[in-house]
Amino acid sequence: MKWNKYTLKTTSKAEDIVISTLADLGIQGVEIEDKQPLTEEDKRQMFVDILPDMPEDDGVAYLNFYLEPEDDNEAILKRVEEELEELRVFLDIGEGTIIRSETEDKDWINNWKQYFHQFYVDEILIIPSWEEVREEDRDKMIIHIDPGTAFGTGMHETTQLCIRQLKKYVKPGDEVLDVGTGSGILSIIALKLSAGHALGTDLDPCAVSAVEENKAVNGIPEGSFDMLIGNIIDDRQVQERAGYEKYDIVTANILADVLIPLTPVIKSRLKPGGIYITSGILDVKEQEVREAVEGAGLAVVEITRQGEWVSITARK
Ligand SMILES: C[S@@+](CC[C@H](N)C(=O)[O-])C[C@H]1O[C@@H](n2cnc3c(N)ncnc32)[C@H](O)[C@@H]1O
After folding, report:
1. What is the pLDDT of residues 184-193, one digit of tens each?
2. Which residues does the record give as S-adenosyl-L-methionine binding sites (predicted)?
């Protein structure tokens, strides 16, 4: 469907309040374009390690919102303008102008799906949950994935590095902890490789629905893959619920800057002899993560690479 796109020019200081004013008028899903630097929390959530150089923050923010052509756009815009005038009395909202353009005919939520098709990681077939399994593939190990808005189609090099390590180290009945589970892809593969139980953790609440859907499409038995939202690095409740010296395998495909404080926490979760599979490490960060792993008292057993990405596997 074609949408009418409107761009409201305001200030980065006023953007939150303008967005909540738009929400009060029923306008959701506002995109923000500003030059504010990302916070540490933003960087963690967005899986970015090295940021491109950003232009200097000029305090200007552009807020894009979309209206359906069938709705009375003129009436909605008039109300937006009235609300902006009221805000202007006590807040610097900058220009407060609105420019209209038309979007392309796109399904914004599902557009990325055209780039995600079935593929192999060695002999494991990873297939979007909306694609058919071909007759000749029915005897393969097949992982159905719809990541929703969580991370983890399996196409990323860092995920593939973890998958190959899981293939080497998972033993029947293993207890697996999957920190930063995203779509749940690594836990599901570990379970298909004969692990007994997986616990996934993530900061992103979107991971919950993604994991539920992927458990269902992969026929994961009830009770064999549980999920916790929270930060195991510093949240005592998550740490307690994850338990101590309990896991044969821990996977963590997260940024180096997260892996470094995470590693000592993982050491006390691993059984003696347990395996810690890390990924998400850019080659320039390899040494730092290696030092954190060895500093926590784990023995590095293998370092694997794909493109500019590194995976370090260690044993307790
Ligand atoms: C690169 S994705 C990995 C997703 C999936 N495991 C995979 O391998 O494709 C990293 C995930 O870690 C999550 N994350 C980041 N920091 C975290 C933390 N401290 N604890 C748990 N999850 C975290 C992010 O929300 C994201 O879902």
Report:
1. 999 999 999 9
2. 159, 180, 202, 253
Domain regions of the chain by residue span: 4-102, 146-315
What is d(CA 190, CA 179) in angstroms, rounded to the nearest whole number?
Answer: 13
Please choose from 254, 258, 279, 309 the residue to mutate so as to test ligand 1's pocket, defined by most ligand atoms within 8 A of CB: 254
pTM (predicted TM-score): 0.74
User: Which residue type is seen at 269?
Assistant: R
Kindly indicate whether the domain formed by 4-102 is annotated with CATH number 3.60.10: no
Q: Is the CB of 155 under 6 A from ligand 1?
A: no
Which residues of the chain are modeled with pLDDT < 70? 1, 39-54, 102-112, 149
Is the Cβ atom of 186 under 6 angstroms away from ligand 1? yes
Q: What is the pLDDT of residue 80?
A: 96
Superfamily of domain 146-315: Vaccinia Virus protein VP39 (3.40.50.150)
Distance 106 CA to ligand 1 centre (A): 28
